[in-house]
Structures are given as C-alpha cells and as structure tokens.
Amino acid sequence: MSKSDPRDIDEDAILKGMSPEEIEALECELQEMDPENAILPAGYRQRDQTKKSPTGAFDRDALLDHLEKTALEHEDRDDLVPFTGEKKGRAFVPKEGHGKIPDHEQITLEPELEEALKNATDAEMCDIAAILGMYTLMSNKQYYDALGTTGTIANTEGINSVVKPDAFKVFPDEPPNPTNVEETLQLIQKNDSSLFDVNLNNIKDVPIPTLKEIFEAMKGNTHVEYLSIAATRSNDPVAYAVAEMLQENTTLQSLNIESNFITCEGMNAIVKAMANNNTLTEIKIDNQRQKLGDSCEMEIATMLENNSSIVKIGYHFTQQGPRARAAIAITRNNDIIRQQRVR
C-alpha cells in the first residue's frame, strides 16, 4: 500500500469545503500563544474564551450579596502573639538638673530689667527679640513688623505662635492706555509744538498702516523727542518705516520698540539706519517674539562702536562677545558726555 505524498493534498479544496465555524476553530488552534510571557496582554497569552455560551444565569445583585455575606461570615485570624497590655522596659526619667542653664552661662540682669522681663507678655518678648536681632526665633513677618513700628507692640502673638500667611492683596488691573491714536497722528502730521512725548504702549489694536503713517509723519517732525510703541504687535514693515524715519529725523532722542514681532531682518534695517543718526540717545529693542540671533547682535555691537550718541540701550545680549563690545561702547559714549559737561 503506497503512502500519499503530503504535497499532493489540495489545501485550498479542503478550506473551501469547511464551514465558517470550522475555519474559526482552525484559526484558534493555529494561534501562537505564550502563556508564560507576563509582558504580553492577556488576549495574547491565551485563546479567546469570550464567545462561549454562559453556563448559568448571571445575577449581579445576587453575586454582590453573596460576596458581602461571605466576607462578613469570615472569621478574623487570631494573632500569633496576643496583646496583654503589659508594659516592657523602663520609663524614661530625666536626670536631676537636666535642661537647666549652667551657672557659668547664666546672665545676671539689673533688678528693674528682670522685673520688666518677668511681667512681659509673649508679644512683647517677640518684639524685644526682633529689636535685639534674634530673627531666628520668629517668622520673617514678625521680625519686620517689629522693626517697622516705633512706640507700639507690632506683634499680637508670641514667638511660638503658628505661622500664618499674609492676607492676599487684590490689586486692580492697570487701566488701558488712554492715548487717542488718530488724534496723536494728526498732531504729529501738523508738527504741533505741544506734543513732545508719544506713548502708544500696550495698544494692541493699532493697525499696521497707522503705525507706518506715524513714522512717515515723524520724518519731518521737529518737536517729538520721546516715542514708544512697546507691545503694539509691530512687525517688520513697521521696522522698515522706523529705519526710514531715523535716516531723516533730527529731533527724536528716545525710541522704545520693545515686546513686538520684529525679526532679525527688520532689526538690522533699524541698526543700519542708526549709523547716520546723531540725535538718538536711547533705544529699547528687547523682548521680541523671535530671537534676533548672533549676527544681529554683532551688528548692534558694531553700530554702538561707530555711534557716539547712544548712551542707553535696552537689550539683553545672549552672547558674551557682543555684550562686552556694547558695554565698552556705551561706557565710552557716557564718558564723552561727562567730559563735555565738565568743560
């Protein structure tokens, strides 16, 4: 009798003749399971058993009642060593004279002073300790309250009182900037002599075209000496307008463009324009949305070295080299002004 070759078995025909239930059972048998692997989820360590028919009726309330009843009827395990209440060991008895100040460390005061301290309250002792500089015996609040008052007892509690936090102080929000942007623009365009300080700080809704018009009008203005547009969402187009203004204006002394969206390109344009400006003495450019970068800081340091009029600059350098060069240049410019004032 000849044996059939396994390679001659038509597996496709066998699978086609199987029912869906038989195919599902075959897949379950062929699954590779690893019940000893604790890293795998439970579904990969054993075969799926959720599709089995229930063996009986399930009553959740009855099951909970049964578990609770079983727990109540279960007796507690007796202690291996029962507690008898017996005290073991010896009670601590302090030595005679323990806690007393040695005779050589005792301080003898005048009778009047001893009588005053003997009748002093805890609050008065707290103030006396603060005046004598014994700040380690009390909280910071008690210490500074005692030093800040004269003639009265500042502390109402003693040294050993519970430290309590200060009452929360509610401070009102700062009022919005009352500057009328349109009226200010008209005054700048008219070159009004009464307007010498323009403050547009924290006005978030100023349109970019309006800011550009302000700097366009500042080109020919001869009275405004202080101009501040901090936190107005100014960007590079405004920076280019500032650069054009600095090339023509000969009156402005202080410019503040901090806390805006000016990038390195816009700041480089302003720095290059300041090379030909000899009237600006103070400029603030810090806290921009984007970091200016090393190359821009080098340009700022070079500008300060070539400009003898800038005596104040508001910018935090991130690199040591430009910071040192800027500090030397600012010191030199201030020294030049000092020498001119002395003469």
Can you tell me about this structure?
The chain is mainly alpha-helical and 343 residues long. Among the domains are: 111-161, no CATH class; 181-332, Alpha-Beta Horseshoe (Leucine-rich repeat, LRR (right-handed beta-alpha superhelix)), CATH 3.80.10.10. Helix content is 40%, strand content 4%. It is built from 12 helices and 5 strands. It has a 5-stranded parallel β-sheet with strand order 1-2-3-4-5, with no helix packed on it. The longest helix is centred in the C-terminal third of the chain and has 23 residues, at 320-342. The mean pLDDT is 85.
A few lines on this structure:
This protein is mainly alpha-helical and 343 residues long. The protein has 12 helices and 5 strands. 40% of the residues lie in helices and 4% in strands.
What tags apply to this protein structure?
Tropomodulin-4; mainly alpha; Leucine-rich repeat, LRR (right-handed beta-alpha superhelix); tropomyosin binding; actin-binding; TMOD; 343 residues; 5-stranded parallel beta sheet; LRR_dom_sf
